[in-house]
């Protein structure tokens, strides 16, 4: 366009982008969706903690049985403590004998105390927290358990 012998260019003032309201709405939607997922993640964290407790207890149990077999059918608490420290890196075990066959081992996972109970003549063990809640094995009966009762 020519004005007074000079060319004048019009610059279009159209900015492309999002308004502040649009950004706030999108952030609100994301926050609402995230609030639905947070309880799920907390549930997964609880399951992972329980799995860690059971796995540590299982490793201690296997270490105890290995120590039992290496010592000709005798439990040597000192060797068990040394073996668990060497193989598992756990040095805060407390081993208690209940009679000749029953053993209780107290151990900590993430600074929380747990109790491992087993009988040296059986191939099974039990893990409880200090409140007496059984963590392993679960109290859920399988089809074969129901058939035996």
pLDDT averaged over residues: 83
Query: Assembly state here?
Result: single chain
Summarize the helix and strand pattern as letters. EEHHEEEEEH
Classify the beta-strand content into a percent band. Answer: 15-25%
Helix content: 40-55%
- Sheet bearing the most strands, described? 5 strands, antiparallel
Number of helices: 3
In terms of structural class, how would the helical and strand content be classed?
alpha+beta
Distance N to C terminus? 98 Å
Global morphology: rod-shaped
Report low-confidence residues grouped into runs of 5 or more: 140-149
Sheet with the most strands: spatial strand order: 3-4-5-6-7
Number of strands: 7
Gyration radius (Cα, Å) is 32 Å
Transmembrane segments: 20-38
Protein name: N-terminal cleavage protein
Main location: membrane
Keywords: Membrane, Methylation, Transmembrane, Transmembrane helix
Which terms would index this structure?
Pilin-like, 5-stranded antiparallel sheet, transmembrane, alpha+beta, 149 residues, N-terminal cleavage protein, rod-shaped
Note down, in words, how this protein is organized.
This is N-terminal cleavage protein. It is found in: Membrane. The chain has 149 residues and is an alpha+beta fold. The chain has a domain at 53-148. The chain is 46% helix and 22% strand. A five-stranded antiparallel sheet has the order 3-4-5-6-7, with helices on one face. α1 (20-70) packs antiparallel against α2 (77-88). The radius of gyration is 32 Å and the shape is rod-shaped.
